[in-house]
UniProtKB/TrEMBL annotation:
PANTHER family, per the entry: L-AMINOADIPATE-SEMIALDEHYDE DEHYDROGENASE-PHOSPHOPANTETHEINYL TRANSFERASE (PTHR12215:SF10), PHOSPHOPANTETHEINE TRANSFERASE (PTHR12215)
Protein name according to UniProt: holo-[acyl-carrier-protein] synthase
Enzyme Commission designation: 2.7.8.7
Gene Ontology CC entries for this record: cytosol
Annotated source species: Ogataea polymorpha
Keyword entries, A-Z: Transferase
InterPro entries: 4-PPantetheinyl_Trfase_dom, 4-PPantetheinyl_Trfase_dom_sf, P-Pant_transferase_sf
Amino acid sequence: MIGALLVRYVLLQNNWSAENWHSLAFQTGDLGKPYVENSKFKFNHSDEKHIVAVAIDFQGVSEIGIDLANPEDVGDPREFLVHFRPIFSDLELEQIDATISALPPGSQQQYLSLYWALKESYAKFKGVGLHGNLQKYEFLNVSPPTPVPQQISVADERAVYKLLPHDTICSVVSSRTGVPDFVKVDGADMIDYVTNMH
């Protein structure tokens, strides 16, 4: 529900009329991918650690997937890798092992959380969510996350990721080139704006 409200708010901020705002009919596909009936724009949303994120392609040129991940959910990095081994290719595991061995513990958790966000955002981009074979989506040469957006390719698509405040990882996948705008929206401002619409 918050994701749908955030989509509406972003649309209003991008010159959609209040009349159009009220007529948006949110639906989900067979595997849960959200869409709006009779609209060309594509969007996806995610939430984690009291943060809600939405990614929108206003022109509807590309499907889009977004995921937020919390490094605290990783727990012990070695146990995480044992438990989630089936989602990684052998080459990914080789690169992950080499990278995390050089990182301090908190950064190890961020790095593994980033891999989860990349895989889930790509699966959401494909419209299959966690029903897809995550091992098939191979991400190589992944740099640890920073507050500055970074790009990486998977198949013919592009993933952009960054470290958000509160140590949350955000990954966005689309076929568009370039770095998307990351805009922080204060929840109180959004609610105030929406409740005072005419």
